[in-house]
Amino acid sequence: MSLSKPTIFDVAKLAGVSIKTVSxxxxxxxxxxxxxxxxxxxxxxxxxxxPDQSARNLASHRSHLIGLxxxxxxxxxxxxxxxxxxxQQGALQGCRSTLCELLIHPCNFRRKSVVAExxxxxxxxxxxxxxxxxxxxxxxxxxxxxxxTKTPLVRLSPGQQQVKQLSxxxxxxxxxxxxxxxxxxxxxxxxxxxxxxxxxKAVGNRFLGYKDGLRDSGLKFSAQLVVAGDxxxxxxxxxxxxLIGRKTRPTAIIAANDDMAVGAMRTAHRLGVEVPxxxxxxxxxxxTLSQQMDPxxxxxxxxxxRMAERAVLMLARNNGKDTASTAHEIVPAxxxxxxxxxxxxx
Amino acid sequence: MSLSKPTIFDVAKLAGVSIKTVSxxxxxxxxxxxxxxxxxxxxxxxxxxxPDQSARNLASHRSHLIGLxxxxxxxxxxxxxxxxxxxQQGALQGCRSTLCELLIHPCNFRRKSVVAExxxxxxxxxxxxxxxxxxxxxxxxxxxxxxxTKTPLVRLSPGQQQVKQLSxxxxxxxxxxxxxxxxxxxxxxxxxxxxxxxxxKAVGNRFLGYKDGLRDSGLKFSAQLVVAGDxxxxxxxxxxxxLIGRKTRPTAIIAANDDMAVGAMRTAHRLGVEVPxxxxxxxxxxxTLSQQMDPxxxxxxxxxxRMAERAVLMLARNNGKDTASTAHEIVPAxxxxxxxxxxxxx
DNA sequence: GTGAAAGCGCTAACAC
DNA sequence: GTGTTAGCGCTTTCAC
Lengths: 346, 346
Fold this sequence. Notes:
With 346 residues, chain A is an alpha/beta fold. In chain A, 45% of the residues lie in helices and 14% in strands. The termini of chain A are far apart.
């Protein structure tokens, strides 16, 4: 391997073509004969050629940096930092296959300065695109500010689709309905629900799914069985305490996320309520901890890695003006039945 | 504000100097008359000029990107993904104050291809510097490969200082000795230890600290009280089972990290051993979960955010060839006493 | 102290 | 389908 980095000229010479053709192959542009393409690819592999990002950026007036913008966990340090890691992992995968780099940008949506912060980021780094995670993805003030910069944007779990706004989401509503029907199928008729962070629209959809599931199962919705949480462990603890204290105690609890479900299990344990014999508990997310609980938590595996990867690929596609492709992708989630749910007590 | 970004030419024209002089001022190079400098600075301010990073990188052959390289959690998905988030947070803070951007690069050190992968990354992005997290930071094969590219490198928790290699670490050994003395002070004489991942040298230092602490407290070391773990939750569970099964059961267990400590608590709970009445358990890291355990875990708060921030700042300093400054920084950790430790049983 | 000229390695626009 | 020619906005080298 030579010491100095091979350039596009080296590849062109080795392949016996012009630099433009190399550029075409590397950038997956059309109009290259497949034999030529193969020759170039062989030369690229042989020299271990990688295009220089700075040169690319300078010439093309945009970077190959994708920004992953999400709510800053530092503010509340949830056990679900795994959530972020998984998003990053997926985004990183997408970047690898599109030859982009990933810039992470956690930011606190509660601060007034978010919008200014994001527009500065965009200007200075010339981001090729942004993947905006929930709940920022459902805040129109933020979405609009980004759109105003004309930076391509994909919203992750936006809670609601908008025409002309790209998004990737999971089927929160449908899968929560499925979970509800599963519990009803086990004989539960008093299925409670702990709602999540009201700022987070996609999480709100789970609540709709819960209602759908009740209806599908012939059960009637009762406000008595719903307690508000805020996605935090502590709110799950408190909500469960309220529910268990009700005169007609629920036999099953669905929490809008795993952190709250884990909190609920902790409360049940403290109050001597046996899970799942006296109370079934289900969550949403499948954080690492859910498998390590005793009993392991029944939950919904959100395909975060896949979602983030699709978002980056969508950005890449859209850059190629491929408007024909879907603007909204749904990556379905999967129910993971473990031991925190069981037949309703007699 | 004009539509197109001002370039160095615009500034030069406005200031009535050549672009080279503007470049000198912007880059704080010497040999510019102070009156000229002021004139240029005024023009820069007036136009709100920011040098284009890509052009700068291309011409100077290096970027303003800092790479944060760490072991890929995807391989084992630990609850300690919070560890990574905290490192990222610190590195991000450091980048903010040095006007750099952060590129994250998780990679699996077990794969043969790591070295090739890292050299590719360096070549492609022309990283201005690398912060290498443990345990990669103590693998000479990897460190050497990076050094060969002449990219400035700071090692995080390298386990051992090397002359001419920058590093930031915490006082693993000393603080573990302190923890051991604290337990001895509570009357424990059979203090067991669960060792960590042998690939991870800094974690190995904690074991040395354990021995120091025993000696300081007049206790003698016994191989019977040491069980090997690998930093994982599961290994903590198994190690604790072995220790609890010993004919002379320990009254306290120190685990080399929190994941294992949590596993140990799980085992104790299963076997009906009451923590802390019959058994004290202590960990290391202060993962989020440790506060949510029942009882909350006594542990060591590793100043990861601070460490990663210092590492980035060290990189920036070193870039300015500031060789006078310290090459090795130690950010001290802090013991967090919670309820999983208590007086030795009578 | 300051400036002119020559690239850095690529993409874009337009030939062929 | 493929190649040619200009830059992109800056740093570097070297002349003055």
